[in-house]
Design a protein that fits this description.
There is one protein chain. The chain has three domains: 6-172, Uridine Diphospho-n-acetylenolpyruvylglucosamine Reductase, domain 3 (2-Layer Sandwich); 176-259, Alpha-Beta Plaits, CATH 3.30.70.2190; 262-334, Alpha-Beta Plaits. 44% of the residues are buried. A five-stranded antiparallel beta sheet has the order 3-4-8-6-7. A four-stranded antiparallel beta sheet has the order 11-12-10-13. Strands 15-16-14-17 form a four-stranded antiparallel beta sheet, with helices on one face. Strand 15 and strand 16 form a beta hairpin. It is built from 14 helices and 17 strands. With 368 residues, the protein is α+β, with helices and mostly antiparallel strands. The chain has helices at 6-14, 65-74, 87-90, 98-103, 111-114, 117-120, 149-153, 187-198, 223-236, 248-259, 281-288, 311-314, 329-334, 343-356, and strands spanning 20-23, 37-40, 47-51, 56-60, 77-78, 121-128, 133-137, 161-169, 171-172, 176-182, 204-209, 215-221, 244-246, 270-275, 292-295, 300-305, 321-326. Helix content is 30%, strand content 24%.
């Protein structure tokens, strides 16, 4: 099924007699494997409103992410949360869509300052498991009232409803971008350097450690401001070594690779995404072993493990959560792909699914 309008989407869900596998552009493999009739959103196309002056964008769910970013770039604007393209990491094809970004709450390196995808969402339209069309939020922040379904839909992986349209707040593209690089830092020193940078008053918008040990710190803004802040930040980082300067084009390329975890794409094995306190990141790397990439100042760790390994067993006692992002279908069927929820949260999630999908037709079992 490939509906072209919200009405057709609602009719398809209302008429479902069994499980539906909700799919956007087909670039991600979230959760446990689900079987059923495939419901694709890739024909729900188009930007329905774009007001650069109001920093507001409204777009249908199947619209390719590249199309959205090109339209914004033409007016020197961007999605603040820097969404990841999973294809390099997962070896998938297809086309990333804005609905898929929302469904997985996909958020990149700029999350340390701009927040996650859900923080840029100001309105959403979706069809729940009964075929009802539901709207929440609006085109400006003050219109968000009642239950915050806008935030709830982000990261729900199509289990509560199928997104048909989303409204975002957007931001201007920074005039200048420069990154500072520190080579050869072990995980502990890297986290300390990133903490010093992020804790400084110099507006660092990205802090990551590549698998080879290079730490990158990004500064963005007006050209004069960036020039001043680069010098000041280099002084702060003096105890960690001499900083190399990476100018605009090189900086953008480096952060695109970090955003997409591209360095891990060719590495054999399963890939886990671990969210922890930055201070715990060195312990995660020490226990996990394998090739790893740190982002968000150490708050996000991508780590490669031997096929079929349950990384969570190695991380017992460390707070946070670990998600299996790349693995065979057999491993994804055997291991909990999403981090098991505490019992109170699991009950709440089950209650929400019962409310919005009482027949259990939308991606059933994907999050279980």
């Amino acid at each position: 099924m490939r509906p072209t309008t919200e009405t057709e989407l609602a009719e398809a869900i209302r008429g479902a007699t069994g499980p539906l596998v909700v799919r956007g552009g087909g670039t991600r493999r979230p959760g446990r494997p689900v079987t059923g009739a495939v419901l694709e959103t890739g024909e729900l196309l188009g930007i329905t409103l774009y007001d650069p002056g109001a920093l507001t964008l409204v777009v249908r769910a199947g619209t390719p992410l590249a199309e959205v970013e090109a339209a914004l770039r033409a007016d020197h604007q961007m999605l603040p949360f820097e969404p990841m393209d999973h294809r390099a990491l997962l070896g998938t094809e297809g086309t990333p869509t804005i609905g898929g970004v929302v469904a997985a709450n996909v958020s990149g390196p700029r999350r340390v300052t701009a927040g996650a995808c859900r923080d840029s969402m100001i309105g959403v339209r979706f069809v729940d498991g009964t075929g009802r069309v539901i709207r929440n939020g609006g085109r400006v922040m003050k219109n968000v009232t009642g239950y915050d379904l806008v935030k709830l839909m982000a990261g729900s992986y199509g289990t509560l409803g199928v997104v048909s349209e989303v409204a975002f707040k957007v931001l201007p593209i920074p005039e200048a971008e420069v990154s500072l690089a520190l080579d050869g830092l072990d995980p502990g020193a890297a986290v300390a350097a990133m903490a010093a940078a992020l804790g400084s008053p110099y507006g660092v918008s990205g802090a990551a450690r590549e698998p080879g040990g290079r730490v990158l710190l990004r500064l963005e803004g007006l050209a004069g401001s960036v020039a001043h802040r680069v010098q000041a930040l280099a002084a702060v980082l003096g105890p960690f070594g001499t900083c190399a300067r990476i100018e605009a084009a090189g900086s953008r390329a480096s952060w695109a690779a970090i955003r997409d975890a591209a360095a891990l794409g060719p590495v054999e094995g399963d890939v886990w995404r671990v969210s922890v306190k930055p201070s715990d990141a060195p312990d995660v790397l020490a226990r996990a072993g394998g090739t790893a990439l740190m982002d968000w100042g150490g708050g996000l760790v991508w780590v490669v493990q031997p096929e079929g390994t349950d990384l969570r067993a190695k991380l017992d006692g460390i707070g946070g959560h670990a998600t299996l992002v790349r693995a065979s279908e057999a491993t994804r069927a055997r291991l909990p792909v999403l981090h098991p929820e505490p019992e109170p949260l699991a009950r709440l999630a089950a209650g929400l699914r019962a409310k919005f999908d009482p027949r259990g037709v939308l991606n059933p079992g994907l999050m279980g």
